């Protein structure tokens, strides 16, 4: 049923039903829980989010010029499937970004790469050797040089973010290369992160409709602002978690914090 929903974009938290009337997470001090069961639209790696415009100062028009990536503005988060941690990005474990040229010297076939820039969705890719990566971009799976895909953005190796057991590197590379040229309705992934993660881990949860949505919400996305302040959102599928996580990455910690305070004040 979820696959038939083509567009539901820019949902703001005021429209999201809360699972707890008081908004607090009974599992953690200071955490706020929101129940979420939406199917989000495909995110496009180059598109800007209108949310950035809505919260810009009236005296300072929104600018879509690319800004340097600031690691301090990256939102820490943890994803749980029931009680099992399946993804974690913390300040301590966050990899420092590098120039595309520096990244090429460290990549090994089968590595997952993430290219980041402030105000944009992250771009994920699979390194397949010879300075080339396979990635999903604008409804097509492409094989390009790493420097071309980066478009000048800084990048990092992100093999360890997901806690699933990785496939052998040669299988990861084959998974990626076997789908080069797939377009539109041939695609089984909503964004570059889902595709790249599927290549490395081979789990159906990353595919469109890979999990049946039957009302329960076994996934929790915990967004961390400090040791005592966090938000917890609930989802029916990992696919939905990834979509929301990427949207928050695009917004950044500072703006997300303002949105959250506006929602719960």
TrEMBL record:
Residues 113-208 form the LRAT domain. It holds the Pfam family LRAT. Residues 42-52 have a biased composition (Acidic residues). This is LRAT domain containing 2. Residues 1-69 are annotated as: Disordered. Residues 53-62 have a biased composition (Polar residues). It comes from Nothobranchius furzeri (Turquoise killifish). InterPro entries: LRAT_dom, LRATD1_LRATD2. PANTHER family: PROTEIN FAM84B-RELATED, PROTEIN LRATD2. The gene is LRATD2.
């Amino acid at each position: 049923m979820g696959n038939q929903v083509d567009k539901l974009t820019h949902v703001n938290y005021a429209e999201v039903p809360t699972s707890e009337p008081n908004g607090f997470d009974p599992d953690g001090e200071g955490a706020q829980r929101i129940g979420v069961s939406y199917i989000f639209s495909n995110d496009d790696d180059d598109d800007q989010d209108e949310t950035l415009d809505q919260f810009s100062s009236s005296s300072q028009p929104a600018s879509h010029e690319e800004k340097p990536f600031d690691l301090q503005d990256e939102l820490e988060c943890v994803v749980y499937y029931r009680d099992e941690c399946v993804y974690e990005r913390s300040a301590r474990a966050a990899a420092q970004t590098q120039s595309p040229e520096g990244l090429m010297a460290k990549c090994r076939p089968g590595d997952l790469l993430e290219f980041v820039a402030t105000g944009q969705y992250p771009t994920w890719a699979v390194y397949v050797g010879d300075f080339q990566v396979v990635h999903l971009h604008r409804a097509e799976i492409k094989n390009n040089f790493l420097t071309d895909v980066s478009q000048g953005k800084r990048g990092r190796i992100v093999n360890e973010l997901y806690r699933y057991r990785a496939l052998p590197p040669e299988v990861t590379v084959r998974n990626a290369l076997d789908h080069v040229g797939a377009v539109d309705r041939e695609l089984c992934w909503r964004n570059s992160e889902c595709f790249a993660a599927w290549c490395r881990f081979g789990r159906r949860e990353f595919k469109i409709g890979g999990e049946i949505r039957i009302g329960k919400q076994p996934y929790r996305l915990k967004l961390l602002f400090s040791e005592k302040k966090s938000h917890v959102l609930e989802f029916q599928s990992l696919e939905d978690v990834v979509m929301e996580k990427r949207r928050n990455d695009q917004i950044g910690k500072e703006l997300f914090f303002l949105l959250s305070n506006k929602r719960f004040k």
